[in-house]
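== Protein entry: sequence and backbone fold ==
=== Local backbone shapes as whole numbers ===
==== Amino acids and backbone structure tokens ====
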Amino acid sequence: MTNKFTIKDFNKMYPDDKACLDEIFRNRYGDLKFCPQCKKETNFYKIRGRKSYACQYCGYQISPLADTIFHKSSTSLRNWFYSIYLFSVSKNGVSAKELERQLGVTYKCAWRIARQIRLLFKQNREILSDIIEIDETYIGGKHKGKRGRGSENKTAVMGLASVLEILCKPQITTRGYRP
């Protein structure tokens, strides 16, 4: 049995905008224990009516959406998260028209969401060139049953590397092979 992230899991994990905002806060700031301004150990609380958090002592505000694709968007965070989910599970991509139907928003809004997500997926894409080495392995310990590919208890891990320079060129001489 494989662990797939289904729509049921998505709905359980992100039932509303607050859950989405909390997830962004955790991803950007982790377990922020100390206020950056007053340096006291604090618990940040969500400000009612705003998409930001404040220090319980000095009131210093942190906005987790700043410098993200969600910044200054009036579209609900749950719609954004659902759109990203659709992009991640789709084999052939997602059109703006499909987002319009799924989210119940205008075409203009759906087009903007799709554009932002596509730009996000394009970031930091380095193309490997020259000679490329590819290897795979399966991790998960020893279990009874099927081994290697297709095993239920193993996770496939694949690695790619660009070989910039060949360090050892074999030379064939009249006396035989010499590295």
User: Anything to note?
Assistant: Residues 7-122 form one domain.
